[in-house]
C-alpha cells in the first residue's frame, strides 16, 4: 500500500492553519508557520484556490478558507429546501401520470422519503414523509446507488435482504441493474419491495450535476408497466421531465 | 376536436402570471414577469400600471407559445388580481395619473385613526362590512384628492377613471380609449369601502362621505359573466371573470358550500370561509366580504381573517436574524428540538390584525430562559402561524355557528410539513393540500370557464379537485389547550406596547 501523499498532507495543514484563526494570512505567514518553501506553499494555495477551498483577498493578497469548503460538510441539500423547490413539479407529475409521487434522499443506508404527493384519486392515503425505504429494493434507492449517492448495506456474506421473491439479493444482480440504470438514466423496481407494487425513479441533480436525490412514481404493476412487465415509456417520459425540471431549478442555486 | 384552454391572468403584488388550464383543471403553460416595487417614502408602496400592462402584453403570447396554441384555442379569459391596489387614469388619454398605490401602502394611517374615532367603525361596518384600514381603496382616493392639485375637480367633471388592477387590465384588453370597458366585480368592489354589501351597488352615503364622484367609478358586473371580447392581445376572446386574488383562491379550492374554508399561506395569510348567501356580520373581528357572484345567481359571501405576519416572520428570521439561509430551513432547524421549550413569538410587527385589530401591539418573544436554543425559536416562529390561524378559525366558528371540519391550504408555506402538522394539531381538524397549488389562477380560470360553459357547473369543478396531501390531528387535547392558553397569554403581553404620543410639558 502506498504511503501518505505529501502534498495532500501539506494542503491539509494549510487548511487547518487557515481555519485556526479569524485572521487572513499572507503567503509568507503560511510558509513560515508550516516550515515550507514559499514556492511550495504558493503552489498548494493556488491549487486549493482553484477548487474553491481557499479564497484570496483581491486587495491584500491574503488567504482565507473558501466558500466551497464551508459547505463541504453540508453539501447535502437541505431536505426541506428540496421539497419546497420540487413542490410544483411533483404535483404536476402526479396530475399527469395519475400516480403517487415521492422524493427521496439517502440517510444512513436507507432512502428517506422527503416528499409525498398522493395518487390523485381521492382514495384514503397516508402521508409517508419521514419513512425509510431499502436502498436495493426501492426504485429511488437503486437510482441513488447507481449514481454513487449512497452505498449498499450488505450482510457479512455480502447478501442483500429479500423483501419478496423478486428482490435482487446478490451483488452481481444488483450491480448489473445499477449499470443499466446508469446507462438509461432511470431505474425501476417491479414487486421487489412489496408484492402488488411497482415504481420507477429518476435522479435529481443539484449544483454541479451531483445527484442529491431521486423522484419516483409508484403504483400497481399493471398501471406502471406494459403487458410485458416493462415500465411504460409514457410514464418514464413524464418522470424524467419532472426530474430534469427540478434539477434545473436546483442547479441555478448557489450552495 | 382540438383541445381548448381557459386562460387566467393573475395580476399579483410582485408579478403577473398567465396560465393556461385544460378541461381537467391541469396547468398546461405558465408565463410570468415581475414588476418593479417603488418605495418612495417609508410606508409607501407603488406600482407602475403601464409596466404591468406591458408585462401582460408579453406573458399572454408567451404562455400561448409554450402551449403551442393561438387565440382561437382560448375558450375564455379570467382575471385575478392583487386586491385594493388603486389606480386612477385619464379617460381621454387612457394613461395613469401617477403610480398605483399598493394595498400594503400605509400612507392613509392618519386618516384611518381619524375615521375610527369619528364617525367610528360601526358607521362603516353597517354599510360596507369593513372597518377603516389602510388596506381599502376609498381612503387612497381621498388621499389622492387631498394631495394632487386639481384631481378632485377633474374627477367631478368625469375626466378621471378609478379602478383596481382587474379594471385597469380589462379596460386595456377591451380597447382602452377606443371603447374600453370600465368595469369591476363585487369581490373587488366590496374592498373599496364604497359598496353597500347587501345591494352590491355603490353606496350614495359612503360616496358622499369620502367625496368620491360617481363617474369616477367602474360599473359593477358579476364575477363570472361575459363582459365582452378582447380587442388587444387576444382578439375575439371573451373576458368572462374577475375576482380578487383571495376570493379566486377560495373558488380555485372549490369552497362552494357554506362552512368550507381555505387559507393561503404566504408573506401574510388569508383565511376565507364561505358563508353561503347569508351576509354574516362578524362580532369577532373578521371582515365580511363577497366570495363570488355568478351571473344570474345569488351573491355568495365569505368571512375573511387576514394575518399580516406569517411567512414574513420566517423571512425576518432568515434576513434579520440570519439563523437560517433559506426559508425552508426553518423546518430543519425547528425539528432539532421536540417542542418550543416554553418560548412563544407573537409577530405583531405592525400591530395585531384579525381577530384582535390592535394597532398598539408590537411583537414579543416570551418565555426566554437559558435553555432556549435557536431550534426552539424556529419552532416558535412556525407555531405563531398555527396559533394565529387557530384564533381566526375560532372567530369564524363563533360568528357563523358552523364548526370548521377541514382546512384547505395553499401557498408557499404548504411545503413546510411541520407547519402543516402543527396546523392540524392546533385546529384539531384535518388539513388538506390540493394537487394544483396555483389556486388563485385556477379560481379565475374556473369562474371564466363556467361563464362560457367550458365547465358545466360547480360539481364538475369539485370533481377536478384532488387531494395531494393530508395532515391529521395528533396532539393530545390537554396539551393543545395548555399551549393555546400560553399563546393567548403571550398575545396579552404584546398589547398596549405602543403608547399614544404624550402631550408636551
What does this structure look like?
The complex is a heterodimer of chains A (255) and B (505). Helices cover 41% and strands 18% of the residues of chain A. In chain A, helix 1 (6-20) packs across helix 3. Chain A has nine helices and eight strands. The longest helix of chain A has 19 residues, at 79-97. Chain A is of the alpha+beta class and 255 residues long. Chain A folds into two domains: 6-70, Orthogonal Bundle (Arc Repressor Mutant, subunit A); 79-251, Beta-Lactamase, CATH 3.30.450. Chain B is α+β, with helices and mostly antiparallel strands. Chain B has helices at residues 49-67, 109-128, 137-147, 151-156, 165-173, 186-189, 204-210, 245-252, 311-319, 329-334, 374-400, 417-427, 439-451, 458-464, 477-494, and strands at 5-11, 15-21, 27-34, 46-47, 74-81, 87-90, 100-101, 160-163, 183-184, 195-196, 201-202, 219-220, 224-229, 238-244, 261-265, 269-276, 287-292, 300-307, 344-346, 364-366, 407-410, 431-434, 467-471. The longest helix of chain B has 27 residues, at 374-400. Chain B has a domain at 5-253: ATPase, nucleotide binding domain (Nucleotidyltransferase, domain 5, 2-Layer Sandwich). In chain B, the strands form seven sheets. Chain B has a seven-stranded mixed beta sheet. Chain B has a six-stranded mixed beta sheet with strand order 3-2-1-5-14-13, with helices on both faces. In chain B, strands 4-7 form a two-stranded antiparallel ribbon. Classes of the chains: A alpha+beta (255), B alpha+beta (505).
Amino acid at each position: 500500500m502506498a504511503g501518505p501523499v505529501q502534498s495532500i498532507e501539506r494542503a491539509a495543514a494549510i487548511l487547518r492553519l487557515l481555519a485556526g484563526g479569524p485572521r487572513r494570512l499572507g503567503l509568507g505567514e503560511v510558509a513560515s508557520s508550516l516550515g515550507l518553501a514559499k514556492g511550495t506553499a504558493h503552489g498548494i494555495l493556488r491549487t486549493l484556490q482553484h477548487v474553491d477551498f481557499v479564497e484570496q483577498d483581491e486587495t491584500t493578497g491574503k488567504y482565507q478558507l473558501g466558500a466551497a469548503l464551508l459547505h463541504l460538510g453540508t453539501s447535502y441539500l437541505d431536505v426541506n429546501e428540496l421539497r419546497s423547490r420540487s413542490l410544483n413539479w411533483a404535483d404536476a407529475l402526479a396530475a399527469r401520470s395519475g400516480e403517487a409521487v415521492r422524493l427521496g434522499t439517502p440517510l444512513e443506508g436507507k432512502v428517506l422519503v422527503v416528499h409525498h404527493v398522493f395518487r390523485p384519486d381521492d382514495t384514503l392515503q397516508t402521508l409517508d414523509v419521514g419513512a425509510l425505504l431499502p436502498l436495493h429494493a426501492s426504485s429511488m434507492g437503486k437510482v441513488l446507488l447507481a449514481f454513487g449517492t449512497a452505498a449498499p448495506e450488505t450482510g457479512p456474506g455480502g447478501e442483500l435482504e429479500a423483501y419478496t421473491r423478486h428482490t435482487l439479493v446478490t451483488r452481481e444482480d444488483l450491480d448489473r441493474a445499477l449499470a443499466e440504470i446508469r446507462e438509461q438514466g432511470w431505474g425501476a423496481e417491479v414487486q421487489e419491495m412489496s408484492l402488488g407494487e411497482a415504481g420507477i425513479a429518476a435522479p435529481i441533480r443539484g449544483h454541479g450535476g451531483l445527484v442529491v436525490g431521486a423522484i419516483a412514481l409508484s403504483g400497481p404493476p399493471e398501471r406502471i408497466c406494459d403487458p410485458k412487465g416493462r415500465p411504460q415509456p409514457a410514464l418514464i417520459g413524464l418522470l424524467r421531465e419532472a426530474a430534469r425540471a427540478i434539477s434545473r431549478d436546483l442547479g441555478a442555486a448557489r450552495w | 376536436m382540438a383541445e381548448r384552454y381557459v386562460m387566467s391572468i393573475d395580476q399579483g403584488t410582485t408579478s403577473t402570471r398567465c396560465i393556461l388550464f385544460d378541461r381537467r383543471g391541469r396547468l398546461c403553460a405558465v408565463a410570468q414577469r415581475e414588476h418593479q416595487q417603488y418605495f418612495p417614502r417609508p410606508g409607501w408602496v407603488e406600482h407602475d400600471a403601464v409596466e404591468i400592462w406591458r408585462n401582460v402584453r408579453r406573458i399572454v403570447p408567451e404562455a400561448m407559445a409554450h402551449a403551442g396554441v393561438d387565440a382561437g384555442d382560448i375558450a375564455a379569459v379570467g382575471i385575478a388580481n392583487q386586491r385594493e391596489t388603486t389606480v386612477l387614469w385619464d379617460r381621454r388619454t387612457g394613461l395613469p395619473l401617477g403610480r398605483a398605490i399598493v394595498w400594503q401602502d400605509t400612507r392613509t394611517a392618519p386618516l384611518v385613526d381619524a375615521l375610527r374615532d369619528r364617525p367610528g367603525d360601526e358607521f362603516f361596518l353597517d354599510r360596507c362590512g369593513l372597518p377603516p384600514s389602510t388596506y381599502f381603496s376609498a381612503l387612497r382616493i381621498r388621499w389622492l384628492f387631498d394631495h394632487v392639485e386639481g384631481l378632485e375637480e377633474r374627477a367631478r367633471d368625469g375626466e378621471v377613471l378609478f379602478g383596481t388592477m382587474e379594471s385597469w387590465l380589462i379596460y386595456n384588453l377591451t380597447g382602452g380609449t377606443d371603447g374600453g370597458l370600465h368595469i369591476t366585480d363585487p369581490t373587488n368592489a366590496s374592498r373599496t369601502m364604497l359598496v353597500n354589501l347587501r345591494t352590491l351597488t355603490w353606496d350614495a352615503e359612503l360616496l358622499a362621505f369620502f367625496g368620491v364622484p360617481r363617474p369616477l367609478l367602474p360599473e359593477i358586473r358579476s364575477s363570472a359573466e361575459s363582459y365582452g371580447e378582447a380587442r388587444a392581445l387576444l382578439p375575439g376572446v371573451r373576458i368572462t371573470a374577475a375576482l380578487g386574488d383571495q376570493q379566486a383562491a377560495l373558488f380555485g379550492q372549490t369552497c362552494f358550500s357554506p362552512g368550507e374554508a381555505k387559507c393561503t399561506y404566504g408573506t401574510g395569510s388569508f383565511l376565507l370561509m364561505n358563508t353561503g348567501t347569508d351576509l354574516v356580520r362578524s362580532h369577532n373581528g373578521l371582515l365580511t366580504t363577497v366570495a363570488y357572484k355568478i351571473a344570474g345567481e345569488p351573491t355568495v359571501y365569505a368571512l375573511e381573517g387576514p394575518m399580516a405576519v406569517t411567512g414574513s416572520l420566517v423571512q425576518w428570521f432568515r434576513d434579520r436574524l440570519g439563523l437560517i439561509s433559506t426559508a425552508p430551513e426553518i423546518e430543519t432547524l425547528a425539528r432539532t428540538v421536540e417542542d418550543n421549550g416554553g418560548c412563544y413569538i407573537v409577530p405583531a410587527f405592525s400591530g395585531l390584525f384579525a381577530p384582535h385589530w390592535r394597532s398598539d401591539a408590537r411583537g414579543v418573544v416570551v418565555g426566554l430562559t437559558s435553555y432556549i436554543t435557536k431550534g426552539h425559536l424556529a419552532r416558535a416562529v412556525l407555531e405563531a402561524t398555527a396559533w394565529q390561524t387557530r384564533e381566526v378559525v375560532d372567530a369564524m366558528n363563533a360568528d357563523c355557528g358552523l364548526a370548521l371540519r377541514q382546512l384547505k391550504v395553499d401557498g408557499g408555506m404548504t411545503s413546510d410539513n411541520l407547519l402543516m402538522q402543527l396546523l392540524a394539531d392546533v385546529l384539531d381538524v384535518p388539513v388538506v393540500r390540493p394537487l394544483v397549488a396555483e389556486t388563485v389562477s385556477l379560481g379565475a380560470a374556473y369562474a371564466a370557464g363556467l361563464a362560457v360553459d367550458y365547465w358545466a357547473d360547480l360539481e364538475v369543478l369539485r370533481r377536478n379537485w384532488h387531494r395531494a396531501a393530508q395532515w391529521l390531528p395528533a396532539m393530545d387535547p390537554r396539551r393543545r389547550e395548555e399551549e393555546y392558553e400560553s399563546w393567548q397569554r403571550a398575545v396579552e403581553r404584546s398589547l398596549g406596547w405602543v403608547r399614544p404620543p404624550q402631550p408636551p410639558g
